[in-house]
What does this fold into?
Amino acid sequence: LIKCRQVEAEVNEAEVLRGHQEGLAQYCSPERANNVGRRGLKLDISICSEETISDLIESHRKGLEFYCTTANAFRLGSEGKSYNRVCGEFDEEAFLAEYRRGRKIYLQNQISERERWILSIDRQLISLESDRAQLTNQLMSLSARPNYTVTTEREYDPRTKTYKEVVKAQESDQQRREREGLERRISDITSQMSRARQDQMSYREQIHRMNQELRSLD
It folds into this structure.
C-alpha cells in the first residue's frame, strides 16, 4: 500500500487489506503446513501469528511422518530427488540408508544412459566423417578438372602509356557454384562433428562426477 500511495495509484485499500488477510490465512493454515511436511520441505512461519505457531509445527510434523519413511526415501533416491535434511526427529539413519541405496540406482541408470549417448555419437561421427571424406574427394576432383572462361581485356599501362590486351581466365559460374556448394556442405559437416564432440565431452564429465558421487555413497 505504501508504494501504491507513493505513485498515487488508485487502489481500494479495503480490498487490498482483505486480499492480504486471506493470503496470510492460507499461508499460515495447518493444511499448508502439513503439505509442506509431506513434500519434505522446511516450514517458514516467520510471518504467522504466535497463536498459530504450535498448531502449524504439529501439522508440519505429521506431514514429515508421511515423508520420512524408508519406502519414500528409496523412491526419492531412485528418482534423483534431493533431500533437505528434515527427518532429524525420526529415524534419519534408516532413511538415509534407503535414500543412498535408491540414489545409487539412479546414478547407475544415468551413467548407463550417457554411455549409450556417447556410443550413439561415435556412430554419428563415423557417418559424418565418411560423408565429409566423399565431399572432399568431390572437391579435389572438381579442382583437378578446371573449367574456366577465357576473356580478353584491354588494360592501360601507365608505364608505357599504351593499351595492351590481357588474357584472363576466370572460373566458370557453374564450377564456382559447385565448388561453393561442396565447401559449404563440408563446413556444415565439420560444425556438426565439433558440436557432437563437445556433447561427448560434456557427457564424459557428467559420468565422471556421477562416478565420484557413487564412490562417496559406499
